[in-house]
Amino acid sequence: MEGKLLIFSAPSGAGKTTIVKYLCEQIPDIQFSVSATTREKRPNEIEGKDYYFLSQEEFLHRIAKKQFVEFEEVYSGTFYGTLRSEIERIWDSGKHVIFDLDVQGGMRLKKKFGENALSIFVKPPSIEVLVNRLTFRATETSQKISERILKAGSEMKFENNFDLILLNDNLESACETAKKWVLEFIGKR
Prior knowledge:
The chain is α/β, with parallel strands linked by helices. 42% of the residues lie in helices and 24% in strands. It has helices at residues 16-26, 56-64, 84-92, 103-113, 127-137, 142-155, 171-185; strands spanning 5-9, 30-32, 35-37, 51-53, 68-75, 78-83, 96-101, 117-123, 164-167. Helix 1 (16-26) packs across helix 7 and helix 5 (127-137) packs antiparallel against helix 6.
């Protein structure tokens, strides 16, 4: 089966991961695509559930073997990407694939899969709210938070490159809107 792709992209801290987790709990026909990364594993993360944690050498080897459908060096020395085998694994199980990706990765997947993909940009109410969210979750150094905020400013300029823009000023409302859009796209409503 070749299923559909549901792409959620946003600046770090906009709420895309929380929304994607909610959708995975609510909609049995979708499954989360686990990305590969070279960044350090956070204490609460699980290999193969949150990410496939690869060394930079292994990541570059897989790029050379064309095993990624998309990848990017998101921050200097830190790569993220979607393995072709991950999409095929989910489609083979009879489900649609849902992604939680950075903005550039989301746009690349949409371009590659066209009408078979729905791309949604999760928009934070403001940069100030992003700063508060990133600071509150306390998973990164102040330097990393500054890098993410700087990148967020440029990522926000790409929101119109997505099929839909989901304002996340109220998480419950954003989750319900996302659920409605996803169910319509996969033909369940």
